[in-house]
Amino acid sequence: MKITKAEVDAVALLARLELTPEETETFTGQMDAILAYVEKLNELDTSGIIPTSHAVPVENAFRDDAVRPSIGVENALANAPDRVEGFFRVPKVIE
Question: Most buried residue, 9, 44, 79, 93, by CB count within 10 Å?
Answer without folding.
Answer: 9
